[in-house]
User: Fold Scarecrow-like protein 21 isoform X2 from Prunus avium.
Amino acid sequence: MQESQKHIIPNVSHGCGEQPVEEPESYSWPPIYSVDHQASSDEVIQRTQLSVQNLAPYCTHESSSGTSTYHPVHSSPSSIGFSANGSPTSHPDLQNYQSCGSPVNQSCLSNDTDDLGHKMRELESVLLGNDLDAFDMYAITDELGPNQLSSEAENWEQMMEMISRGDLKEVLFACAKAVANSDKSTTEWLMLNLRKMVSVSGEPIQRLGAYILEGLVARLASSGSSICAALRCKEPASAELLSYMHMLYEICPYFKFGYMSANGAIAEAMKDESRVHIIDFQVAQGSQWITLIQALATRPGGPPQIRITGIDDSTSAYARGGGLGLVGQRLSRLAESCKVPFEFHAAGISASEVQLEDIEVRPGEAIAVNFAFMLHHMPDESVSCQNHRDRLLRLVKSLSPKVVTLVEQESNTNTAPFLPRFAETLSYFRAVFDSIDVALPREHKERINIEQHCLAREIVNIIACEGMERVERYELLSKWKSRFIMAGFSPYPLSSLVNGTIKTLLQSYSEKYTLEERDGALYLGWMNQVLVASCAWR
Assistant:
């Protein structure tokens, strides 16, 4: 596999080889897919009413030039589908994206925002459409009553005010509320206006709004697996995807925080062990273990014998550029250069399907289990009676591990109803997009690609999907604690050394990042929004 970037491992000393090590580059939320755009912006502006059937292919993407804004498109049916880790099963060609470029504060109902009577007449036209015979206004008046009609008029006036002042956050939430209430007319009208307000090359809220709008459109158009068919999707070439993932890893500390805190807990628990077996339930590129192998190589008295069981299903091979054998080869070369006895066991299976016989436990090994950014993909009791989320914890407990590490997004997108989930997603990813905006210049040509391929699919999945199709199911650490305790685990507080290491790491980033230690766990945040939590169990 050709990698678009090479990351030289720093500080490989004390027994490690002199040659630099290429770090496999894969650190991301699951990737988003590009969309095939065919309709012109002129055709779009001419449309004043949309049907639910026409909404399905309206997606929000732009080219890496960073000059376009959101506009609706027609897309062809696709056989693509969301897998549990977000990898595609087909790869249509990427398309360029065109501009729509309408002012943020422009209303599609009226150019004269001071003339309320004119606005109401235009509003009546939007609500009734051209076919007045389809509506019985007298029946509607009798059914709603004067008080409810007055309330509806006030709501519409409030929405027009939101649009006129460019309050994108409030308009997005109003649109989500209309979708939740199955209010087709309001939804379509708000989406027409939102397309003028969002842009993947604009302010952080505009960029986030573009992907949130895509999720709302997909939710309105269909549900479950049919959402995937409505979006014509493609990942970039694997080398490009790895490059985007690596850039996200470097510009934001979320994944470094998670990996370093987990590795610190494992190193502490294994300080006196001679044989160590690490079970990684989502090994990806194996990049987390590079620094741990280097650290254990310098251990007083010599390094332990290390065996890693890497679990990952075959759909991850695309981003990896090959099978799990590649991970084993890379880590084996590193371990050899560090003079660390090493063995890699590949378990090419989905984590939800793992059974005891897939792990190959050996007598005399001290076991460490790693759950880094993966348990939220496991369906729980709210989705399936099989409840793989708790089943995995019970299986791991039966192994009697010395330490189990957990790193997860600190949010609730699992059991929260749609509107609270929407509000939480908007708040959570607003902080993520703000942090990227500080790290990369807005005109940076790769920023759009990073957000599109590493973040946007996750946003769309959270908003658009329900049931088994919604695979991005975060939980708050308080809920994870309940699950671990019910499975028989007790907390393994992270040491002060781990806390100090993370503080040193954050010195290289914006001062707006926050670190909090609470009840033996570490919380990484951006300003007032906690984003990632890390803890350990035994």
About this structure: Strands lie at 275-280, 305-311, 342-347, 366-372, 403-409, 513-518, 521-526, 529-537.
